[in-house]
Automatic annotation (TrEMBL):
Family listed: Belongs to the WSCD family.
Entry keyword annotation includes Repeat: yes
Domain WSC: 142-234, 247-342
Segments of this protein annotated with the region Disordered: 83-105
Pfam family, one: WSC
Sorted UniProt keywords: Repeat
Taxonomy, superkingdom: Eukaryota
Keyword Repeat: yes
Gene this chain is encoded by: WSCD1
Name recorded for this polypeptide: WSC domain-containing protein 1 isoform X1
């Protein structure tokens, strides 16, 4: 009996050794095949640019796996696709650079890993990949190609209106936008940015410098880094031009500066001068303000000496049947030209030592405040989430990792001790809960610029929304007051009423020095691009008595907490009477 048992044990030992040997051989074979595939997919020479060639480095580095469980009600995106990038449907997708273990979420580790991997498997004798033909000027369309020009953030070549579409920019889209605003030239930069203007420098640069394709039009040149592809646009037909850009906006009657009209950079003396003629002249000169006094037309920017804050009765400027024009007063009109003294933005040159949050309840105007902060400081703002719509319209900090500390502050709607204590300081933005709830419900049902349909307001969805979100409005403020390390409380209504003083306090809190001229430029461009326009299709305050009783209770709770925290409490329009 002992002999068969011994033979069985010997057989089992051999079988175990054989299984171990086969497993090791299998793993080694798989590793060799993996390295061989990587050797083919990653030639050491210059690679042919794929569909992500024109994306910024931050967009490519952070486009994979950016969203995680921290994202609050953000749309879930597949971790295998770059965020906010159209997937090519024709030719097959380009091979991924390296195996899956190389794709780390941490952008600071990704590049060192790739460098080591390429050095290990690279073939110094491999042939370089062929490059496609460089993009060229668009053929057809409304405009005529002029050339490639240099451009910089501080001193723009085209000083008119500015537009972004980081996903679908085309040459014709930029040309049409500039023609509608009566500009002569349309310039495209970095594949996604559109600039308008009426004057060009004398010299241009070589056409090879404008080597970026348009994001929405393959094969067409849309400038480059610091380079503009410029087209001379044809004026739209009078019947097709949008009326909103043809209409001159009356700003009011104002007293002239103490030193008279000498502070105005340009002027025109014309008999029977009209507001339209003066505005057209100043538009051609690329000034945002047209100042009219009798037969004298002046072009200007808002300045500390001419800030347009103290309007007087229009009769002093000769308006009305019994008005008498006074020599020291003038009429001011807004031209279609955008004030570009505050449109240049960039990431912080070095990592910020203070991690600042821009915290608010959804629907409190966070996007608008980010617009103000970016234009006032000249630095991008980041976001705890990712919103492709905001990124495509110029909020480039959306795709930067929220902890990169390359942005001046980070948008968040989070509450709770752990999420709050991650930040060193915060601007806490508060808005009337009645307005916030309506704004957030509109956004959830119809996006950033739309209105919820009547069926949404009449359904059960609206009462359920109020019952859950009203409590969140209260708990969000209370948590930040309790756990926030250093807070600046800002009320949305104060920004609307007194923008420059409130914005000045916010910029000082962010430890950024800003000139008064730049703040006035922000005030002149305060509306931004994310406002719901048009008539509301529903009752503006669809709250039942039960809803009002619930919300008013939360308002009293937050008002009491703000006063106990040493503040002034909520504005009087919040507190129920």
């Amino acid at each position: 009996m002992a002999k068969p048992s011994f033979r069985l044990q010997k057989l089992l030992r051999r079988t175990r050794f054989l299984l171990f040997f086969l497993s090791a051989a299998y793993l080694m074979t798989g590793s060799l095949l993996l390295l061989q595939r990587a050797r083919v997919a990653l030639p050491p020479g210059p690679r042919a640019p794929g569909p992500l060639q024109a994306l910024p480095v931050a967009a490519v580095a952070l486009g994979v796996g950016l969203l995680d469980s921290r994202a609050l009600r953000a749309p879930r995106v597949s971790p295998d696709l770059p965020l906010s990038v159209d997937v090519p449907r024709g030719p097959p997708a380009q091979a991924r650079p390296g195996p899956r273990w190389l794709r780390t979420r941490n952008p600071e580790l990704r590049q060192p890993r790739r460098g080591w991997f390429h050095h290990f498997v690279g073939d110094p004798q491999g042939p370089p990949a062929l490059r496609p033909e460089a993009p060229g000027p668009a053929i057809g369309g409304r405009g005529t190609y002029v050339g490639c020009f240099s451009d910089s953030g501080r001193d723009r070549t085209l000083k008119g209106a500015v537009f972004f579409d980081l996903r679908k920019m085309t040459v014709s889209h930029c040309q049409d936008a500039c023609a509608e605003r009566s500009y002569v030239y349309a310039g495209l930069e970095a594949g996604a940015e559109c600039y308008c203007g009426n004057r060009l420098p004398v010299t241009s640069v070589g056409p090879e410098a404008c080597n970026h394709e348009c994001k929405g039009e393959k094969g067409s040149a849309c400038g480059g880094v610091g380079r503009l592809s410029v087209y001379r646009v044809q004026e739209l037909q009078p019947g097709s031009r949008k009326r909103e850009w043809r209409t001159v906006t009356y700003r009011g009657c104002f007293r002239l500066p103490e030193n008279g009209t000498h502070t105005f950079p340009d002027s025109l003396l014309q008999p029977n001068a009209t507001a339209e003629a003066c505005s057209g002249f100043c538009s051609q000169k690329e000034f945002p303000l047209a100042v009219l006094r009798g037969q004298e037309c002046y072009c200007a920017y808002p300045t500390p000496q001419f800030s347009l804050r103290d309007a007087v009765d229009s009769s002093l400027c000769g308006r009305g049947p019994e008005a008498l024009r006074q020599a020291e007063y003038c009429e001011v009109y807004q031209t279609p030209v955008q004030d570009t003294r505050c449109t240049d933005r960039r990431f912080l040159p070095t990592k910020s030592k203070v991690f600042v949050a821009l915290s608010s309840f959804p629907g409190a105007g966070n996007t608008w405040v980010r617009h103000l902060i970016e234009h006032a400081t000249g630095f991008y703002t980041g976001s705890y989430y990712f919103d492709g719509t905001l990124y495509n319209k110029g909020f480039k900090g959306e795709k930067d990792h929220w902890r990169s500390q390359r942005t001046i502050c980070v948008k968040t709607h989070e509450s709770g001790r752990r999420e709050i204590e991650m930040f060193d300081s915060a601007i806490l933005l508060i808005r009337n809960p009645y307005r916030s709830l309506v704004a957030e419900f509109n956004r959830k049902c119809a996006g950033h610029l739309g209105y919820a349909a009547d069926r949404n307001w009449k359904s059960k969805e609206w009462p359920d929304f109020v019952n859950s979100y009203a409590a969140w409005w209260s708990s969000h403020v209370l948590d930040w007051l309790r756990y926030g390390k250093r807070l600046l409380v800002v009320h949305y209504e104060d920004l609307r009423r007194s923008l420059v003083p409130t914005l000045r306090d916010m910029v000082a809190f962010l430890n950024v020095s800003v000139s008064e001229e730049r703040l006035l430029c922000v005030e002149n461009n305060k509306e931004g691009s994310f406002w719901r326009r048009g008539r509301r299709p529903h009752d503006p305050e669809p709250f039942t008595p039960e809803m009002r009783a619930l919300i008013d209770g939360y308002i009293r709770t937050v008002d009491r907490a703000l006063r106990e925290h040493g503040g002034a409490g909520l504005p009087g329009e919040y507190v129920p009477r």
